[in-house]
Specification:
This protein has 21 helices and no strands. The protein is mainly α and 280 residues long. The chain starts with a helix and ends in a 12-residue tail after the last helix.
């Protein structure tokens, strides 16, 4: 069985063999044939009518699946098939449009993760009735700085959370969002790799434990702020400080004698802990 699976996925396997394997009684073998980038379009077309979901998922994401098959799969009743299709390379524009109108928010949200969406589809998904779809689209790195700045005027909390998560958001955008009163938006700002130490200093004083936790795990956080957070009342904040590579030796020293076992154990794994082994 294992040898057959290797043969089914091997790009060098001859088409006649792949054709025979596509009729195998084993769904795993048929799935591997569907995943094979060398499988002929005719075989993929046949497998697109398979009764097993895993085979259909593989056909949907094979970069060489014919466009007419992709169009057919966009109407498949299986939610997972349509979700998988959203990840396919080189989707025809009409299929993208069809998926953007899918009855299930999970499919539309998956589509919103693509990096090659046309502008009119982006606009449509940013206005979607589902907060999941709007938030996912707002967090997509494909958004231009102009679009992101324009979205800041929207009062939609889920759009704002998406912008806060977006790795294309500038420090200026994150600074504006750091004035939010919503903890989940502030958490996303603090988690963003583009978040400046200045913003993190401000958020390190947040009333929300969850926000201070996010600050404590961001490597952009200043050592002096991490030192203060190493004495935070919340155990998980201190745990995150102990795990942060930017934490100073002084803070690690504090955490090595923390009252909580999990915090001490995390501090013992820190790169500075070895230097202080002799003192404990």
């Amino acid at each position: 069985m294992e040898d057959t699976l290797v043969m089914a996925i091997n790009p060098l396997t001859e088409q006649d063999v792949l054709r025979d394997l596509a009729s195998s009684a084993s769904s795993s073998i048929r799935m591997y044939v569907a995943m094979n980038p060398s499988t002929h379009s005719k075989i993929l077309e046949k497998l697109s009518k398979d009764s097993t979901s895993g085979v259909l998922y593989a056909v949907a994401t094979n970069p060489y699946t014919p466009r007419k098959v992709l169009r057919s799969l966009s109407k498949n009743e299986d939610l997972g098939v349509r979700e998988s299709l959203c990840l396919a390379e080189d989707l025809p524009t009409d299929v993208i449009l069809s998926l953007s109108k899918d009855r299930t928010a999970l499919v539309r949200a998956r589509l919103a993760e693509r990096k090659d969406l046309p502008k009119h589809i982006i606009t449509k998904l940013l206005k979607d009735e589902s907060r999941l779809v709007r938030g996912t689209m707002a967090s997509n790195k494909c958004l231009s700085e102009e679009v992101i700045n324009g979205l800041l005027s929207r009062r939609d909390l889920y759009i704002r959370e998406g912008i806060a998560k977006n790795r294309s958001s500038t420090t200026h955008v994150l600074k504006r969002l750091s004035n939010s009163k919503c903890s989940f938006i502030l958490c996303s700002v603090a988690d963003n790799e583009n978040c400046s130490s200045e913003i993190l200093t401000k958020l390190s004083k947040s009333e929300f434990n969850s926000v201070r936790e996010c600050v404590a795990r961001n490597v952009n956080c200043l050592p002096e702020d991490l030192l203060k957070l190493s004495e935070d009342k919340d155990m998980w904040v201190r745990y995150m400080v102990a795990s942060n590579a930017s934490t100073s030796k002084e803070a690690v020293r504090n955490l090595l004698i923390d009252k909580e076992d999990s915090v001490r154990e995390s501090a013992q794994r820190h790169r500075h802990a070895e230097d202080m082994a002799a003192f404990f």
